[in-house]
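During the practical work, I selected for study one protein's amino acid sequence and its backbone structure tokens, as given directly below:
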Amino acid sequence: MIASQAKGHRRYQDYSMSYQIQPQNILVVDDEPMIQEALKMILIPQGHTIVLASDGPEALERFARQKFDVVFTDLNMPEMRGDELARRIRRENPYQVIVMISAYANLLTPRQRKETPVDLYINKPFQLQTIFDALQSAHEINKARRKDAEQIDQASQLVAAVAAGPARAACT
């Protein structure tokens, strides 16, 4: 939703008609309360669950206690930069979808982008549709990663059955 002024009161234009994905559990990490609140206002009406963190250490605490479909993080924050947070999250969960939102994302060199374990980048200030597009992409990435994990699991089971010998493989 986007706020607009009309006859002295706030009115919201609903973008939900063009935005159709399942609700997601989202961790928003940003040291700017205005960005946190903007993302909450945009995403909660769409059915998403939002958990806020103001810095990297707080985000890691929340991440340790709860599973998230996607993590939105700022790049420049006190105590821990967003790229370091992304590395630590990926050590805990290599498949976690991470979106970097930053006024400085376009200043990262291609090498820095390659070394930062982030799936998507969004520049500040961001457009409403960019957030929705990022969530759609995150949903697709999660689907693909789940499918890959299932295929790896099936292949592992097949290898284990073959390794156990012909009699065991026939039983499986």
In short: The longest strand covers residues 97-102. Residues 1-17 have pLDDT under 50 and may be disordered. The chain has one domain: 2-171.
